[in-house]
Design brief:
This protein is mainly β. Strand 6 and strand 7 form a beta hairpin. Bound molecules: ligand A6N and zinc ion (ZN).
Length: 258
């Protein structure tokens, strides 16, 4: 049966079809803030930098386990733990709960946020495409942004206002409006945790350099409700589509702030 987030096909069953689920660098993780190591050279050498071109139209897909925005413009992420390599923005998507008290994949000292936004990039300095990079240990970089209920996020409106038209799995649509991925980021992009991990959904490839921002962004209650009204590939409400934290094993989490 197709993997999902229900009792019958959820994260505890993924190891059957994807043995790497119990691997050495799985994601997400619980970020233990006191154990994270301040690493000035991650910060010092060159600050993390994003250079995104605003999308002139927004391509949205309900892929059965999340809502995804496919990126067509050139968007580059480099610096910080990525060094000189340039990672190209491929897509972004989210994970969320049925209620505000859960929904993020990474947790901070055990705290779960209502949702988590993932901006997925692939290493264009070393590989020829996302498909080529997706299985390489330095193939991907994902920005993790925590979402907490509050004021509406204007840049996210194009997604939340169209969830109603993307109800069922496989639904796609193109919205004729601009979207600047930079405006989906928190105001503080200097303070983050970073560690080597994996895709948080099957095939769980261990190819991701994770960069999780300390500062959450706010979405309105209505925007969070719009996500919860989506329908997954089994015809159920798409909710609680998050993987719980995996074992840290022999990894260190670095931080750029004291
Ligand atoms: N949640 S997350 O940000 O960690 C995250 C990010 C990206 C993901 O890609 C799924 C995927 C696509 N492909 C693929 C393989 C070959 C060709 C084309 C696509 N393989 N896995 C999954 C989870
Ligand atoms: Zn994700």
């Amino acid at each position: 049966a197709h993997w999902g987030y229900m009792t019958t096909n959820g994260p505890s069953t993924w190891g059957k079809d994807f043995p790497i689920a119990n691997g050495e660098r799985q994601s997400p993780i619980d970020i233990v803030t006191t154990a994270a190591e301040y690493d000035s050279d991650v910060l010092g050498s060159n600050a993390l930098s994003t250079n995104y071109t605003p999308e002139s139209e927004v391509k949205l897909v309900n892929n059965g386990h999340s809502i995804m925005c496919q990126i067509t413009k050139k968007g580059v992420l480099t610096g910080g733990p990525l060094g000189k390599d340039e990672y190209r923005l491929e897509q972004f998507h989210l994970h969320w709960g049925a209620e505000d008290n859960r929904g993020s994949e990474h947790t901070v000292d055990g705290k779960m946020y209502a949702s988590e936004l993932h901006l997925v990039h692939w290493n264009a300095s070393k590989y020829s495409s996302f498909a080529d990079a997706v299985q390489k240990p330095d193939g991907l970089a994902v920005l993790g942004i925590f979402i907490t209920p509050g004021v509406a996020c204007n840049q996210f409106k194009v997604i939340s206002d169209n969830c109603g038209k993307l109800k069922t799995s496989g639904a796609e649509m193109t919205v004729d409006t601009t979207l600047d991925p930079t405006l989906l980021l928190p105001s503080n992009t200097s303070d983050y945790w970073t560690y080597l991990g994996s895709l948080t959904t099957p095939p769980l490839f261990e190819s991701v350099t994770w960069i999780v921002f300390k500062e959450p962004v706010e979405y309105s209650k209505e925007q969070l409700l719009a996500l919860r009204n989506l329908v997954d590939s089994d015809g159920n409400h798409m909710q609680d589509n998050y993987r719980p934290p995996a074992a840290l094993k022999q990894r260190k989490v670095k931080k750029t702030f004291t």
